[in-house]
Amino acid sequence: MSSSVEIHNKSWYGDGIYATQFLPVDNNPKRIMIFIHGLGAHVLFYKEWLCRFAEHGVAVFSFDMKGHGRSMGPRAVIGSYQDIFALIDQSVEKVQMLFPDRPILLYGHSMGGNIALRYLQTGEKRSKVSLGIISAPWILFDHFPYSGFTRLCQWFSKKGIQFQFSRKWKLFSSDLNDPLIHYKVDTQTFVDAQNQGKKIMDRDNTFEIKTLILHGALDRMTSPKTSQLLASYHDRIDFKLFDKTKHHLHRSDERDVIFEYINNWIDESLRNI
Asked: DSSP E strands: which ranges in the chain?
C-alpha cells in the first residue's frame, strides 16, 4: 500500500458526493478502473483491495453513493439508477480527459455489481468501457429468507409506503467499529435493485462488453447460481466460482488467488480486444 497514492477529491461530482482516487506513484497508469461499492459500505471499506490494483499500475476512481459513507443523503437511499449512471458517465469522461487512450474497467461489488451490470447494458458511455468486472453481484434475491423480504418490500412499494429497517449484517461483522458502515435497508432502493435485476436477467438485454463475474460458492448473501445462469445466457460473460469463499471475495483467504485471476483475465481479455 505504500507504493500507491490516495487522493481525495470532492469536486468531480458536485457538493455532497465523496470521491476517492488510488493512483500509481508514477501517475502513469496502464489501465483505469471505476469502482462501485456495495450496499451499506463505502469506498474506503475496499481500500486495501483497490490499492493492490494501484500497485499494479491501475488508477482506481470511485465515489461513495448517496446515502453511503461520506456522501450526502439519508442512509441507504441511493436515489435513482439514472442518477448513479450519470455519476459513472462523469467518471468515464474525467478519466478519459486525464488518461486518454487507456482502457477503462468498470468494477462493481454486490449492489455495485447490480449497478455495473445494468450500466454495461444501458449506460450512455458504456461504449467507452473496455471490460466489466463484477464480484458477488446482487442480481435477484430469490432465496430464503430474502425472497419473503422481497415480497414485503414490493407490497409496501405498491402502496406508496417507504421505510427503512436496520440489522447487523454478518457480512460486516468485522467492521462494527467502522462509523461509515451502515446496516440500513431502504425498501424503495431494495425494490429498485430487484427490478433492475430482472432486467439484467432478461435475455433480450445483451452484453456487448466482455465481462467477468466472480462469486464465492459459500456466499449466502447473494446468489452464485444466478450469476452462473446469467453467464450461461451470454457469450461475452465469463464466470468464475471460488469454492471456499463467501460474499467478500476481496477479504477472503483466497484473495491472493482471486486477485491474480482477475489480473490474468484482464491481460488476456485486453489482448483479444
From this structure: 4-8, 19-24, 31-36, 58-63, 104-109, 131-135, 164-166, 184-186, 211-216, 237-242
